[in-house]
Specification:
alpha/beta, five-stranded mixed beta sheet
Length: 343
């Protein structure tokens, strides 16, 4: 039995978790900062960093207490060190390095996006690999070929706005509060997804990359008028705004599902996994699941607890990296960007 303490501070959630053998989550503590950032309509890096400093000790302590663990029970410490807000990442990295040194435990640096890609395997007796992984979040929308937790290659990635970013921007256009994804999803349930024909940007035959800036602009012009950025929302009824939300959401889902099936066709793999913050969207989960079912593909979505930023996925991947000997030193640093091999 190998027990990993995971720490995650890449953006606006301070999180710590204890996971055994990469699948058994003993604790998963998240201190959200949504209320701090809502008034600004998005994450303010300086506020995020300050909140991480204030919360990190208590969150780690709670994770250990909930898991009924002491430092003697921990075999290694895994921490997100890329990608993310550098100031926020540094809080987690510094805490992890301090504990690694003080407790004499191995340190494992984790790429946040790799952890999202592996999150659908948490809790499973048998891993779903190899698989096509669709990871959709606020900062990243990517397709991966996942041969295993330590063998992940990029097939396609966003060229501009990620899916979650588009949800937040469209929510702001429609006068909805931050974070926009859940607001759009709730409103879309009341709307007609066929009311407005928004573009589905595919970027050419065979492309597995994503672009959602065009649909965001299309919604902006539909609401305010071509070339305008304000002054048009008041002419729409509540039902018409719900129709816009539903039509936008469906257009994004269509692109995500079509690109995923294109990746399946290009690789011949028979399993699809879904992770990332946008993976919490019920309509996306249902449509991707039904599409896989029609094509006789295996499908596994990350549990909703592990879709948004969390430390359980960090600890889970940390276990596999520890087992493969991929360790970090006390010179581990934080990086705003993260690169993965491209195939």
């Amino acid at each position: 039995m190998t027990t990993i303490l995971g720490i995650e501070t890449s953006c606006d959630e301070t999180a710590a978790a204890v996971v055994v053998d990469g699948v058994d989550v003993r604790s998963n503590i998240i201190a959200s900062q949504i209320d701090l950032h809502r008034k600004f309509g998005g994450v303010v890096p300086e506020i995020a960093s300050r909140a991480h400093i204030e919360q990190i000790d208590a969150v780690i302590e709670e994770a250990l207490e909930t898991a009924a663990c002491s430092q003697a029970d921990i075999d290694a410490i895994a921490v997100t060190n890329r990608p993310g807000l550098v100031g926020a990442l540094l809080i987690g990295v510094t805490a992890a390095k301090t504990l690694s040194w003080a407790w004499g435990k191995p340190l494992v640096g984790i790429n946040h996006i790799e952890a999202h890609a592996c999150s659908p395997s948490i809790g499973l007796d048998e891993p779903p690999w190899p698989a096509i992984g669709l990871i959709a979040s606020g900062g990243h929308t990517s397709l991966f070929r996942i041969n295993g937790p330590t063998s992940i290659r990029v097939l396609g990635a966003t060229t501009d706005d990620a899916a979650g970013e588009a949800f937040d921007k469209v929510a702001a256009i429609l006068g909805l509060s931050y974070p926009g994804g859940p607001q759009i999803e709730r409103l879309a349930r009341q709307g007609n997804a066929k009311a407005v024909e928004f573009p589905r940007t595919m970027l050419g035959p065979g492309s597995l990359d994503f672009s959602f800036s065009g649909i965001k602009t299309a919604v902006l012009y539909h609401v305010h008028g071509h070339g305008q950025t304000s002054g048009g929302l008041e002419k729409f009824s509540r039902q018409e705004i719900a129709d816009i939300a539903a039509s936008f959401q469906q257009a994004v889902i269509d692109v995500l599902v079509r690109k995923t099936m294109l990746a399946v066709g290009q690789t011949g793999l028979g399993t699809v996994v879904l992770g990332g913050g946008v993976a919490s969207n019920r309509a996306l989960r249902e449509e991707l699941a039904s599409t896989c079912d029609r094509r006789d593909l295996q499908f596994r979505a990350a549990d909703s607890l592990y879709c948004t930023d969390n430390a359980a996925m960090i600890a889970a991947l940390g276990y596999h990296k520890l087992m493969s000997g991929d360790l970090s030193g006390l010179d581990l640093d934080a990086h705003a960007t993260g690169t993965l091999p491209v195939t």
